[in-house]
Design goal:
alpha/beta, Rossmann fold, Cobalt-precorrin-4 Transmethylase, domain 1, five-stranded parallel β-sheet, four-stranded parallel β-sheet, 38% helix, 17% strand, flat, binds 4-oxopentyl trihydrogen diphosphate, binds FE3-S4 cluster
Protein backbone atom coordinates (compact mmCIF):
# COMPACT_ATOMS: atom_id res chain seq x y z
CA UNK A 1 0.00 0.00 0.00
CA UNK A 2 1.10 3.56 -0.72
CA UNK A 3 -0.12 6.96 0.52
CA UNK A 4 -0.16 9.85 -1.93
CA UNK A 5 -0.56 13.40 -0.64
CA UNK A 6 -2.25 16.05 -2.78
CA UNK A 7 -0.67 19.44 -3.42
CA UNK A 8 -1.80 22.03 -2.68
CA UNK A 9 -3.97 20.99 0.26
CA UNK A 10 -5.15 22.46 3.55
CA UNK A 11 -5.03 26.04 4.76
CA UNK A 12 -5.57 28.85 2.25
CA UNK A 13 -4.50 32.47 2.79
CA UNK A 14 -7.99 33.53 3.95
CA UNK A 15 -8.12 30.84 6.62
CA UNK A 16 -4.59 31.63 7.87
CA UNK A 17 -5.61 35.25 8.21
CA UNK A 18 -8.97 34.52 9.90
CA UNK A 19 -7.41 32.26 12.54
CA UNK A 20 -4.57 34.75 13.14
CA UNK A 21 -7.14 37.53 13.70
CA UNK A 22 -8.83 35.56 16.49
CA UNK A 23 -5.49 34.56 18.05
CA UNK A 24 -4.09 38.10 17.95
CA UNK A 25 -7.31 39.57 19.33
CA UNK A 26 -7.15 37.09 22.24
CA UNK A 27 -3.51 38.02 22.89
CA UNK A 28 -4.14 41.74 22.70
CA UNK A 29 -7.51 42.11 24.45
CA UNK A 30 -7.77 38.88 26.48
CA UNK A 31 -10.68 36.45 26.70
CA UNK A 32 -13.50 36.38 25.95
CA UNK A 33 -13.41 37.34 22.31
CA UNK A 34 -16.73 36.78 20.58
CA UNK A 35 -16.72 35.31 17.08
CA UNK A 36 -19.83 35.47 14.93
CA UNK A 37 -20.18 31.97 13.47
CA UNK A 38 -17.33 29.40 13.38
CA UNK A 39 -14.41 31.54 12.18
CA UNK A 40 -13.69 28.74 9.71
CA UNK A 41 -15.65 25.52 9.33
CA UNK A 42 -13.29 23.22 11.17
CA UNK A 43 -14.02 21.47 14.44
CA UNK A 44 -10.37 21.15 15.51
CA UNK A 45 -9.60 24.83 14.81
CA UNK A 46 -12.71 26.06 16.64
CA UNK A 47 -12.18 23.76 19.65
CA UNK A 48 -8.60 25.03 19.91
CA UNK A 49 -9.69 28.70 19.77
CA UNK A 50 -12.48 27.99 22.26
CA UNK A 51 -9.89 26.60 24.69
CA UNK A 52 -7.99 29.90 24.35
CA UNK A 53 -11.09 31.98 25.13
CA UNK A 54 -12.99 32.48 21.89
CA UNK A 55 -16.78 32.35 22.25
CA UNK A 56 -18.62 31.39 19.07
CA UNK A 57 -22.11 32.84 18.68
CA UNK A 58 -24.59 32.89 15.76
CA UNK A 59 -26.43 36.11 16.58
CA UNK A 60 -25.00 39.43 17.70
CA UNK A 61 -27.69 39.62 20.40
CA UNK A 62 -25.57 37.03 22.25
CA UNK A 63 -22.63 39.48 22.45
CA UNK A 64 -22.61 41.58 25.65
CA UNK A 65 -22.35 45.37 25.14
CA UNK A 66 -18.82 46.74 25.05
CA UNK A 67 -17.35 43.43 23.81
CA UNK A 68 -15.13 42.65 20.86
CA UNK A 69 -16.60 40.59 18.04
CA UNK A 70 -14.94 39.03 15.02
CA UNK A 71 -16.83 38.27 11.80
CA UNK A 72 -16.02 34.83 10.35
CA UNK A 73 -14.07 34.22 7.12
CA UNK A 74 -17.36 33.64 5.28
CA UNK A 75 -18.44 37.29 5.56
CA UNK A 76 -21.60 38.99 6.84
CA UNK A 77 -24.56 40.87 5.43
CA UNK A 78 -24.85 44.65 5.56
CA UNK A 79 -27.55 44.23 8.22
CA UNK A 80 -25.16 42.35 10.54
CA UNK A 81 -22.48 45.00 10.02
CA UNK A 82 -24.95 47.81 10.84
CA UNK A 83 -26.22 45.98 13.91
CA UNK A 84 -22.68 45.71 15.29
CA UNK A 85 -22.09 49.39 14.58
CA UNK A 86 -25.36 50.50 16.18
CA UNK A 87 -24.52 48.49 19.29
CA UNK A 88 -21.05 50.08 19.41
CA UNK A 89 -19.30 46.70 19.40
CA UNK A 90 -15.61 46.63 18.59
CA UNK A 91 -15.37 44.68 15.34
CA UNK A 92 -12.55 42.86 13.61
CA UNK A 93 -13.46 41.57 10.21
CA UNK A 94 -12.01 38.15 9.32
CA UNK A 95 -14.00 38.02 6.06
CA UNK A 96 -11.69 36.61 3.38
CA UNK A 97 -10.61 39.44 1.05
CA UNK A 98 -11.76 37.26 -1.86
CA UNK A 99 -15.28 37.21 -0.41
CA UNK A 100 -15.13 40.97 0.20
CA UNK A 101 -14.22 41.36 -3.48
CA UNK A 102 -17.52 39.67 -4.40
CA UNK A 103 -19.39 41.92 -1.95
CA UNK A 104 -17.86 44.97 -3.66
CA UNK A 105 -18.93 43.63 -7.07
CA UNK A 106 -22.50 43.16 -5.86
CA UNK A 107 -22.51 46.73 -4.51
CA UNK A 108 -21.32 48.13 -7.86
CA UNK A 109 -23.90 46.16 -9.83
CA UNK A 110 -26.75 47.25 -7.56
CA UNK A 111 -25.60 50.88 -7.80
CA UNK A 112 -26.02 50.54 -11.55
CA UNK A 113 -29.54 49.20 -10.73
CA UNK A 114 -28.64 45.83 -12.21
CA UNK A 115 -30.22 42.78 -10.60
CA UNK A 116 -27.81 40.09 -9.43
CA UNK A 117 -28.08 36.31 -9.57
CA UNK A 118 -25.90 34.51 -7.06
CA UNK A 119 -24.91 30.89 -7.67
CA UNK A 120 -24.43 29.25 -4.28
CA UNK A 121 -25.67 26.86 -1.65
CA UNK A 122 -28.78 28.00 0.23
CA UNK A 123 -28.24 28.47 3.96
CA UNK A 124 -24.44 28.74 3.75
CA UNK A 125 -23.13 31.77 5.72
CA UNK A 126 -21.13 33.08 2.74
CA UNK A 127 -24.31 33.04 0.63
CA UNK A 128 -26.25 34.84 3.39
CA UNK A 129 -23.50 37.46 3.60
CA UNK A 130 -23.25 38.06 -0.14
CA UNK A 131 -27.05 38.00 -0.71
CA UNK A 132 -27.26 40.45 2.19
CA UNK A 133 -25.15 43.09 0.41
CA UNK A 134 -28.40 44.47 -1.00
CA UNK A 135 -31.92 44.58 0.39
CA UNK A 136 -33.46 43.71 -2.97
CA UNK A 137 -32.69 42.75 -6.53
CA UNK A 138 -30.83 39.55 -5.61
CA UNK A 139 -31.73 36.01 -6.64
CA UNK A 140 -30.13 32.76 -5.48
CA UNK A 141 -29.80 29.74 -7.78
CA UNK A 142 -28.20 26.41 -6.95
CA UNK A 143 -28.99 24.27 -9.98
CA UNK A 144 -29.85 24.34 -13.67
CA UNK A 145 -33.48 23.70 -12.64
CA UNK A 146 -33.45 26.90 -10.55
CA UNK A 147 -32.21 28.80 -13.63
CA UNK A 148 -35.08 27.42 -15.73
CA UNK A 149 -37.72 28.82 -13.36
CA UNK A 150 -35.96 32.09 -12.49
CA UNK A 151 -38.05 35.23 -13.17
CA UNK A 152 -36.18 38.56 -13.19
CA UNK A 153 -37.35 42.15 -13.67
CA UNK A 154 -35.16 42.97 -16.67
CA UNK A 155 -33.10 40.27 -18.44
CA UNK A 156 -31.14 43.05 -20.20
CA UNK A 157 -29.80 44.38 -16.91
CA UNK A 158 -28.67 41.28 -15.11
CA UNK A 159 -25.36 40.18 -13.55
CA UNK A 160 -24.16 37.09 -11.72
CA UNK A 161 -21.72 36.28 -8.93
CA UNK A 162 -20.80 32.96 -7.33
CA UNK A 163 -19.94 31.53 -3.95
CA UNK A 164 -16.13 31.19 -3.69
CA UNK A 165 -16.05 27.48 -2.78
CA UNK A 166 -18.28 25.89 -5.42
CA UNK A 167 -17.35 22.89 -7.53
CA UNK A 168 -15.70 24.47 -10.57
CA UNK A 169 -17.35 21.93 -12.89
CA UNK A 170 -20.85 22.23 -11.40
CA UNK A 171 -20.64 26.04 -11.45
CA UNK A 172 -19.70 26.03 -15.15
CA UNK A 173 -22.88 24.10 -15.97
CA UNK A 174 -25.08 26.57 -14.06
CA UNK A 175 -23.30 29.60 -15.56
CA UNK A 176 -23.81 28.19 -19.06
CA UNK A 177 -27.52 27.70 -18.32
CA UNK A 178 -27.74 31.32 -17.12
CA UNK A 179 -26.00 32.58 -20.26
CA UNK A 180 -28.34 30.55 -22.45
CA UNK A 181 -31.48 31.78 -20.72
CA UNK A 182 -30.26 35.40 -20.27
CA UNK A 183 -27.82 36.12 -23.14
CA UNK A 184 -27.17 39.68 -21.87
CA UNK A 185 -26.09 38.55 -18.39
CA UNK A 186 -22.77 39.99 -17.22
CA UNK A 187 -20.37 38.47 -14.72
CA UNK A 188 -16.78 37.84 -13.79
CA UNK A 189 -14.48 36.53 -16.55
CA UNK A 190 -15.20 32.99 -15.39
CA UNK A 191 -16.65 32.81 -11.89
CA UNK A 192 -15.81 33.97 -8.35
CA UNK A 193 -14.41 30.63 -7.24
CA UNK A 194 -11.20 31.41 -5.36
CA UNK A 195 -7.68 30.28 -6.28
CA UNK A 196 -7.52 27.89 -3.30
CA UNK A 197 -10.77 26.11 -4.19
CA UNK A 198 -9.72 25.81 -7.83
CA UNK A 199 -6.22 24.50 -6.98
CA UNK A 200 -7.43 21.98 -4.38
CA UNK A 201 -10.02 20.60 -6.80
CA UNK A 202 -7.41 20.29 -9.58
CA UNK A 203 -5.11 18.49 -7.13
CA UNK A 204 -7.85 16.02 -6.16
CA UNK A 205 -8.53 15.24 -9.82
CA UNK A 206 -4.84 14.38 -10.32
CA UNK A 207 -4.90 12.29 -7.13
CA UNK A 208 -8.11 10.46 -8.02
CA UNK A 209 -6.64 9.43 -11.36
CA UNK A 210 -4.00 7.29 -9.62
CA UNK A 211 -5.71 6.25 -6.34
CA UNK A 212 -8.44 3.80 -5.35
CA UNK A 213 -9.56 5.85 -2.36
CA UNK A 214 -9.31 9.57 -1.56
CA UNK A 215 -9.54 10.67 2.06
CA UNK A 216 -10.36 14.34 2.52
CA UNK A 217 -9.55 15.87 5.90
CA UNK A 218 -12.14 18.48 6.79
CA UNK A 219 -15.35 19.04 8.72
CA UNK A 220 -18.77 18.06 7.40
CA UNK A 221 -20.00 21.67 7.40
CA UNK A 222 -17.07 22.85 5.26
CA UNK A 223 -18.37 23.52 1.76
CA UNK A 224 -14.98 23.46 0.04
CA UNK A 225 -14.02 20.19 1.80
CA UNK A 226 -17.30 18.54 0.77
CA UNK A 227 -16.66 19.60 -2.81
CA UNK A 228 -13.23 17.88 -2.72
CA UNK A 229 -14.89 14.61 -1.72
CA UNK A 230 -17.45 15.03 -4.52
CA UNK A 231 -14.73 15.79 -7.08
CA UNK A 232 -13.01 12.49 -6.18
CA UNK A 233 -16.29 10.57 -6.46
CA UNK A 234 -17.13 12.24 -9.79
CA UNK A 235 -13.73 11.04 -10.98
CA UNK A 236 -14.78 7.46 -10.25
CA UNK A 237 -13.03 6.71 -6.96
CA UNK A 238 -14.26 6.35 -3.43
CA UNK A 239 -14.12 9.62 -1.50
CA UNK A 240 -14.45 9.97 2.28
CA UNK A 241 -14.53 13.19 4.33
CA UNK A 242 -13.25 12.88 7.92
CA UNK A 243 -12.42 15.31 10.70
CA UNK A 244 -9.34 13.38 11.76
CA UNK A 245 -7.62 10.05 12.42
CA UNK A 246 -10.15 8.77 14.98
CA UNK A 247 -12.77 8.32 12.27
CA UNK A 248 -10.60 5.99 10.21
CA UNK A 249 -11.86 2.45 9.73
CA UNK A 250 -9.10 0.07 8.64
CA UNK A 251 -11.63 -1.93 6.61
CA UNK A 252 -11.57 0.97 4.09
CA UNK A 253 -8.07 -0.08 3.03
CA UNK A 254 -8.76 -3.72 2.29
CA UNK A 255 -7.97 -4.43 -1.36
CA UNK A 256 -6.73 -0.84 -1.89
CA UNK A 257 -3.17 -0.18 -2.99
CA UNK A 258 -3.05 3.60 -3.33
CA UNK A 259 -4.68 5.86 -0.77
CA UNK A 260 -4.85 9.56 -1.64
CA UNK A 261 -5.01 12.12 1.16
CA UNK A 262 -5.91 15.79 0.91
CA UNK A 263 -7.39 18.49 3.14
CA UNK A 264 -9.96 21.25 2.77
CA UNK A 265 -8.91 24.90 3.01
CA UNK A 266 -9.92 25.03 6.69
CA UNK A 267 -8.24 21.77 7.83
CA UNK A 268 -4.88 22.00 9.68
CA UNK A 269 -1.86 20.05 8.41
CA UNK A 270 -1.37 18.40 11.81
CA UNK A 271 -4.56 16.41 11.18
CA UNK A 272 -3.28 15.32 7.76
CA UNK A 273 -0.07 14.04 9.39
CA UNK A 274 -2.09 12.17 12.04
CA UNK A 275 -4.29 10.63 9.33
CA UNK A 276 -1.21 9.50 7.38
CA UNK A 277 0.28 7.97 10.56
CA UNK A 278 -2.94 6.07 11.20
CA UNK A 279 -2.97 4.71 7.64
CA UNK A 280 0.66 3.62 8.02
CA UNK A 281 -0.20 1.77 11.23
CA UNK A 282 -2.86 -0.22 9.42
CA UNK A 283 -0.42 -1.91 7.03
CA UNK A 284 1.65 -4.98 7.84
CA UNK A 285 4.41 -3.84 5.47
CA UNK A 286 5.98 -0.36 5.57
CA UNK A 287 3.74 2.16 3.78
CA UNK A 288 5.65 4.68 1.64
CA UNK A 289 4.30 8.24 1.52
CA UNK A 290 4.76 10.34 -1.61
CA UNK A 291 3.85 13.96 -2.33
CA UNK A 292 2.20 14.87 -5.60
CA UNK A 293 3.44 18.02 -7.31
CA UNK A 294 0.90 20.78 -7.80
CA UNK A 295 0.34 24.50 -8.25
CA UNK A 296 2.60 26.64 -6.00
CA UNK A 297 0.45 29.21 -4.21
CA UNK A 298 2.41 31.76 -2.17
CA UNK A 299 -0.69 33.90 -1.46
CA UNK A 300 -1.01 35.79 1.82
CA UNK A 301 -3.35 38.48 3.09
CA UNK A 302 -2.36 41.18 5.60
CA UNK A 303 -3.94 41.41 9.05
CA UNK A 304 -6.04 44.42 10.09
CA UNK A 305 -3.60 47.18 11.13
CA UNK A 306 -4.60 47.13 14.81
CA UNK A 307 -3.70 43.44 15.04
CA UNK A 308 -0.69 43.34 12.75
O1 LIG B 1 -16.23 30.83 2.58
C1 LIG B 1 -15.05 30.95 2.66
C2 LIG B 1 -14.51 32.27 2.61
C3 LIG B 1 -14.12 29.77 2.84
C4 LIG B 1 -13.57 29.72 4.21
C5 LIG B 1 -12.67 28.53 4.42
O2 LIG B 1 -13.29 27.31 4.41
P1 LIG B 1 -14.48 26.84 5.36
O3 LIG B 1 -14.42 25.37 5.43
O4 LIG B 1 -14.42 27.59 6.66
O5 LIG B 1 -15.76 27.38 4.63
P2 LIG B 1 -16.65 26.84 3.44
O6 LIG B 1 -17.81 26.11 4.07
O7 LIG B 1 -17.13 28.07 2.76
O8 LIG B 1 -15.84 25.99 2.56
FE1 LIG C 1 -10.79 32.85 0.92
FE2 LIG C 1 -10.94 30.90 -0.79
FE3 LIG C 1 -9.89 30.49 1.51
S1 LIG C 1 -12.43 32.51 -0.50
S2 LIG C 1 -10.96 31.83 2.88
S3 LIG C 1 -9.09 31.87 -0.06
S4 LIG C 1 -11.21 29.08 0.45
Amino acid sequence: MQVILANPRGFCAGVERAIAIVERALEKFGAPIYVRHEVVHNKFVCDDLRSKGAVFIEDLSEVPSGSTVIFSAHGVSKAVRSEAEERGLKVFDATCPLVTKVHVEVGKMRNQTREVVMIGHKGHPEVEGTMGQSTGGMYLVETVEDVATLEVLNPESLSFVTQTTLSVDDATVVINALKQRFPEIQGPKKDDICYATQNRQDAVKALADVCDLVIVVGSQNSSNSRRLKEVAIARGVEGILIDGPDEIDEAWFSGKSRIGVTAGASAPEILVLQVVDRIKMSGLDPVPVVQFDGEKEGVSFPLPRELA
